[in-house]
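Protocol step 4 of 5: obtain the predicted structure for the target chain.
Materials: sequence only (see below). No template structures provided, no constraints applied. The aim of this step is simply to have a reference model before the mutagenesis design in step 5. Sequence pasted as it appears in the construct record:
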Amino acid sequence: KIYNATYIHLGVFIDKELVGVLQYGYAMNPASGSSVVKDTALDEYLELNRMWLDDKAPRNSESKAISYSIKYIHGKFPKVKWIQSFADERCGRFGVVYQAANFGFYGEHTAIFWALGNEVFHNSLMTRNPKLSKSAAYIQANKDDAVSSQLRQFRYLYFIDSREKKNCLLKQQPYPKHYKEVA
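Step 4 output (structure tokens):
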């Protein structure tokens, strides 16, 4: 899936074969940046909106891809001071990829997701104008066949400009550990 607010699309290649993608762009609520890091302008932060790597990519490829992408962003978009991303329970392991990539953990919240067939949709699509979004139109039209779940989402931040960390309005916390959870 492509999130419409992305504007940086990066491919992950191994031996000239495309094995993954990372998409960076605006957050779901683009103006929310300054509520996370004080005085952040819209073009001073990014959200890692989507990341997918094929299972044939070697171990640790995700954290390497994130590292390379941050170096690229730092050179190409020098105004960007920090990056935000979320992991959720569907992926398991509570964002261990971000932990390996030296992101800090800044809390969690719950969100509702809707599963319909092999696709998963965020609850925000239930209130979005279906005329403006094909995904919203699809999930709203098929709501009776969808299954909702309330899942935890884990917020991770990476400070490209380490001086911005002092302006963060959220408290950094110890990493959540998936193996401490009881099934």
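Step 4 remarks: The helical segments are 33-36, 61-76, 96-100, 134-141. The CA atoms of residues 23 and 64 lie 15 Å apart.
Proceed to step 5.
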